[in-house]
Amino acid sequence: MIGTHYVYWLLFALMMIGLYVVISHGNLLKKLIGLTLFQVGVFLFFISIGKVDGGSAPIVSDDVETYSHPLPQVLILTAIVVGVATLAVGLGLAVRIFETYGTVEEEDVLERDTTP
Amino acid sequence: MIVLDIASVVLLAAGALFVVSGGVGLLRFPDFYTRVHAAGITDSAGAGLILLGLLLRTPSWETGVRLLVIMLFLALTGPTASYVLAFAARRDGVPIWREGDPRR
Amino acid sequence: MTVFTLINISLLAILVATALTVSRLRALYEAAMLSALFSLVTACLFVLLDAVDVAFTEAAVGVGISTVLLLGGLALTRSREAVTPRRRRLPGAAVAILAGGTLVYASQDLPAFGSADSPVQRHPLTDTYLHQSQEDIGIPNTVTSVLASYRGLDTLGELLVVFTAGVAVLALLGPLAHPVDARRRDDLDLVDYRVLRVISAMLMPFILLFALYVLFHGDFGPGGGFQAGVIFAAGFVLYGLVFGLDKAQQVVPRVVLWALIPFGLLLYLGVGVVNMLLGGSFLDYDTLSSDPAAGQHLGILLVESAIGITVAAVMTTVFFSFANRRATR
Questions:
Q1: So what's the ipTM on this one?
Q2: C-alpha distance from C184 to closest chain B C-alpha (Å)
Q3: C215-262 per-position pLDDT tens digit
Q4: Percent helix, strand and coil across chain A, each rounded to 5?
């Protein structure tokens, strides 16, 4: 079990670190960084499922027999670029929140909303 | 061919040694400037020697040309990065460590 | 224990250690720089897992673009995080442990790492992608053929998301939201750094040339529209950082960038519509030429260029939007 699944477990640990940061930390920018950590864990998980032992990159040539699966790579390739695009939107929102509330701490923002 | 193999192993080992010493320096040097110096070693000597070692075992000339191009770009960018870091720190007034000062 | 396992475990250990450090750091500039390191290690892992195209993208995006965006966002807000109170730590830890435990429990059903007879690898589509594609399309890099041809519609959707994100950032931070908030020229200008300027000016043509190489070489080796677009954008970002925003915006005026954002998407859609007009289905490149393989080549080239244009324009616009904003303090 350990010999065959260790990669998945380490990647789950990575995802959970990201999830913890997203839930527990109050700073919006830190949450975005945590989201990136989580995201990279998911990316690596996808890619590791497509990996074949002794395989090679899925670029067909005559002297290669086994290839890793190309489909997860295609999905993740596009997901990385989409990920940075969404990160930019998140950062833009955080900047606007800072300009309106003067803080990027979640609790301070909520407090300012509740006090009339 | 055996001579080339031995030479490449020696170069790779020397490169690895420089990378390790750069890492150790990064952890143990007392101030910013000495640490930049340690980090610069990994870029220039470490990566350069490793690339040279790899160059001796490339099967085809296409790969060799690529390695040479990578070396050229590393030689241009690595020192620039170290210089800019040190220059920026100097401009911001980061103090230089002298014998007897505490680590920072 | 093979060499592969050893490298794999060490890289994963570095990743987890970096992630832990990032999660504990309260100085967010440091956290942003460490997440760039995190991306580099991830790129190494992708190479180890045979995903060279992905590694390429991750290296360009994670180190080049997202670090600059994070630093730009931090420059406009606070760069120090408040202490996380104890009562907030518990729920997060509980959720993480629960979810992680569930994942580990569920992972018992997963096929062994690297096994060649898992359902994914045995599926008939694998053979289509790896061997049939050589006759259908005839380009060696199967990642490109799957991305641009077999799953072309999917990629169109992804490009649409990038487009939407670009429009959203423009709406949030762009000059459309605050027409008065135009340029700002102070600390982003690195004009004093002569060595940096000379070296950057020297490397700039090579960066752009490399982006073009990546775009057109995507059929045969790692590369393609997404990578090329990101490298282009990284080149412009470097130019803007070193030579000042004013100069960068003279080289690529914002109006041109705004026009290029929808242009790439429309080019992609246009290829699909032309396919339909020629009697095929949407994005069926066989119709583009009398020889189906030549049609596929042309279609993939057009679609990859379209992706490259939109991605480069969106990333550069996003950078300009952040950099043009004046910090409010």
A1: 0.92
A2: 21
A3: 998 888 888 899 999 999 999 999 988 888 888 888 888 889 999 999
A4: 75, 5, 20
Tell me the chain A residues in contact with residue C38 when contact means C-beta distances shorter than 8 Å: 37, 40
Instruction: Report the helix count and the strand count for chain C, using DSSP H and E.
Output: 15, 0
- Residue with the two structure tokens 């994100």: C165
**Å from A97 to nearest chain C CA?**
9
Contacts of C195 in chain B (CB under 8 A): 80, 83-84
pLDDT of residue C181: 45
Residue B100 in any domain: the answer is no
User: Is residue B102 assigned to a domain?
Assistant: no
CATH code of residue A12: 1.10.287.3510
A4 in contact with C at a CB cutoff of 8 Å?
A: yes
pLDDT per position as a tens digit, C15-27: 999 999 999 999 9
- Rg of chain C (C-alpha set): 23
Answer whether C311's CB lies under 8 Å from C65's CB. Answer: no
Q: What DSSP state is assigned to residue A67?
A: B
Judging contacts by C-beta atoms under 8 Å, the chain C residues touching residue B20 are none
Q: In this complex, do C69 and A87 lie within 8 Å of one another by their Cβ atoms?
A: yes
**Can you give the residue ranges of every domain in chain C?**
123-329
Please indicate whether, in this complex, the C-beta atoms of C202 and B80 are within 8 angstroms of each other: no
Total of domains in chain B: 1
C201, two tokens: 């000016």
What domain count does chain A have?
1
B62 close contact with C: CB closer than 8 A: no
